[in-house]
Amino acid sequence: MQFRSPRGTHDILPEQAGSFRKVIETSRDLFEHAGYAELVTPIFEENELFARSVGSETDIVQKEMYVFTDRGGRTVALRPEGTAPVVRAYIQHGLHARGDVQKLYYVGPMFRYDRPSAGRYRQFHQVGIEAIGSLSPYLDVECMALLLGIAQRLGVRDVAIHLNSVGCKKCRPPYVGLLREYLAPRIDSMCKDCNTRYLTNPLRVLDCKVESCRPFLEGIPRITDHLDDECRSHFGEVRDILEASGIPCTLDPYLVRGLDYYTKTAFELIHSAFGARTSLGGGGRYDDLVELLGGDPAPAVGFSAGVERFVLALEEARGEGAGGKDRNNAVRVFFVSTDPGTRTLAFREMLRLRESVPVDMDFAGRSVKAQFRKADKLGARYAVVFGGEELAKGAVKLKDLASGEETELPLAGLTERLGQMGGTQ
Ligand code: AMP
Fold first, then answer.
1. Which of 132, 169, 294, 326 sits 20 to 30 Å CA-CA off 25?
2. Eight-class DSSP state of 266
3. What is the model's pLDDT at position 251?
4. Who's near 285: CB < 8 A, 6+ residues apart?
């Protein structure tokens, strides 16, 4: 019997790991430059945390959570998203006391029992930020700028920020009433999911992707026409700041997010290369969540972005298929031994050199020719040949693999010498 990774999960192979890391490192760098500090939370939490925050009637909680009872009888869930755990930690550790706005970021795996497809996994990774403790619309725009910034830094084009406001707990209920009234005579002709959403969470009808439901959405009341004064003015400020900052956005009245906790601003970064539209990331305000989870009221805004989705977009931008050409190893020097007798010496020198330079050698007993081929394949800049002839003179041969030039180096002080050269590219 041969094992395979569980359905909906995937291995990140060495040739993909470079892009994977690049997405994460680019995001980290952007976040830290904007004053966000990393917060690492467990990958599982009390189930109730997500039911309360994401919403007990959402798809995520209803259909997609990995929930299990541990050996102590506690009901826990693998985290489906990062905001609720960050807010839980913010409250638990009294982070509000550290200053007016807490700017936090996270990186890590999330779990959703979703139907697997291209770019949709059951275990995937997100990077995300949360700015907790302020209503300032500048922070909403900062979030959008950072999400867009990831794409720009990675060279991912054909992206657009889609923006909407989903109101607040005061103006949303009357709007949802209007929505129900509008949908009532039409709902029988709509898809099964819309019928369920009509009863439990009518707002989600707006972002139904089923083609046959689209015509029903055309004349639907728009939430932005029904915002209360505070939400309307906040939304206006966000749009003004976006414009003044030169950040283009597309107003999208159908944009609602799959999680209940959003208030006011909601946005997504849509990638539309090659005809398909995918969401690379999304976020918005959640002004009531901290209080809902038991903290002192603190308005907040944030976003999360899908690492795998950015990897796919990055590979597309570079014109590579899955399994890009990234050389995901750092080896700069390769030690070649001409006969087994010189191998131990080469090994000892290699261990020393590794303190300053990334170096590797052959472990498969290959021929000298094959060892050079391997050095080439790893992208090494230099080969150091441990040959009987040179060693008899207390020396080794250094070959510059780019120019083919060979020089003899004394064995004594080899590590220092190569260290000084730094295995330069
Ligand atoms: P959400 O938390 O649903 O707003 O998702 C934020 C981002 O995470 C999306 O824009 C995607 O990039 C990514 N994402 C969400 N669900 C998945 C999934 N099942 N597989 C891969 N990426 C996902």
1. 132
2. E
3. 96
4. 140, 262, 263, 264, 265, 266, 299, 300, 301
| Cα distance between residue 396 and residue 403, in whole Å | 18
Q: What pLDDT, on a 0 to 100 scale, did the predictor assign at position 320?
A: 58
CB contact at 8 A, 335 and 361: yes
Residue nearest to atom 6 of ligand 1 (CA): 281
Coil, helix or strand at residue 242: helix
- H/E stretch holding 89 reads helix 83-92
State both tokens at 23. 């997405």
Answer yes or no: is the C-beta of 304 below 6 A from any ligand 1 atom: yes
CA atoms within 13 A on the CB side of 320: 15
In whole angstroms, give the CA distance from residue 416 to residue 284.
53
Lowest mean pLDDT across 89-93, 160-164, 317-321: 317-321
Beta carbon of 120 within 6 Å of any ligand 1 atom: yes
Question: How far is the centre of ligand 1, averaged over its atoms, from the C-alpha of 281 (Å)?
Answer: 7
Instruction: Judge if the beta carbon of residue 283 lies within 6 A of ligand 1.
Output: no
Distance 69 CA to ligand 1 centre (A): 26
- In ligand 1, the atom with minimum distance to the C-alpha of 305 is 7
Single pTM value for the model: 0.89
More confident call, 168 vs 201: 168
Give percent of the chain above pLDDT 90.
74
